[in-house]
Amino acid sequence: FQDEAFRRAGMVVLVVEHSKAGEAVLQALQAEESAGQGRVHFMSFAFRLPPLARDGTAKSTPATLRDDVHEALTWLQQQSPGMCIRALVGQGRAADACLDYAATYGDAASCPTRNLVLLGGAHAAAQPLGAGWKTLSLVGSQDEASPVLAAEAFHARHRGPGGAGHTLRILHGA
Questions:
Q1: DSSP character for 53?
Q2: Are 69 and 111 in contact (CB under 8 A)?
């Protein structure tokens, strides 16, 4: 996000899980924007996914969360057809929903981005990502919610030649 040309050339969509960690990410983004620091992408759209059902009584499932991401991106495209969405960023369980979105809807010509950033998450995609996707995974070496081994296995399956495909960054001590 520190690349000036990248920062000024579109929007970043941030999707967070319904948790304290997700709220912390949203608050950090809001604080950055209200302070006018300019270090975060100049234009962003952030939203929180509803919690997953634990007992089968709620409506949210991994598939409905994926579809929530799809609906939000479709809405953004309808509001601003010329808008360039530079990256879809998912945090925690929302990272899994974004990954599932990319695997399910990412081959369509109408898909607004081919750049995905996964902040944590389980790195479990039911289907592989389509061609042309660039993915960056950031995982903490001590993060229980996103085991490093799962991210490394995902990296082995999705890295591409010449740096295309998947990039993995393990943040030691995080």
A1: P
A2: no
Q: Using CA atoms, how far apart are residues 129 and 104, in angstroms rounded to an integer?
A: 8
Find out whether 161 and 135 touch, Cβ atoms under 8 Å.
no
What is the predicted pLDDT for the residue at 4? Answer: 53
Helix (H, G, I), strand (E, B) or coil at 126: coil
In three-state secondary structure terms, 15 is strand
With 0-12 CB in 10 A as exposed, 13-18 as middle and 19+ as buried, what is 65? buried
Q: Is 93 helix (H, G, I), strand (E, B) or coil?
A: helix
Q: In what order do the strands lie in the sheet with 115-119?
A: 44-48, 11-16, 85-91, 115-119, 134-140, 166-171
In which residue are the tokens 């059902």 written?
53
Distance CA 68, CA 164 (A): 27
- Spatial contact of 88 and 121, defined as CB atoms under 8 Å apart: no
List average pLDDT for each run of 10 residues in the chain, which is 174 residues long: 55 89 86 61 80 67 90 91 88 92 90 91 78 87 74 78 74 83
User: Smallest Cα–Cα separation from 22: which of 113, 119, 125, 139?
Assistant: 119
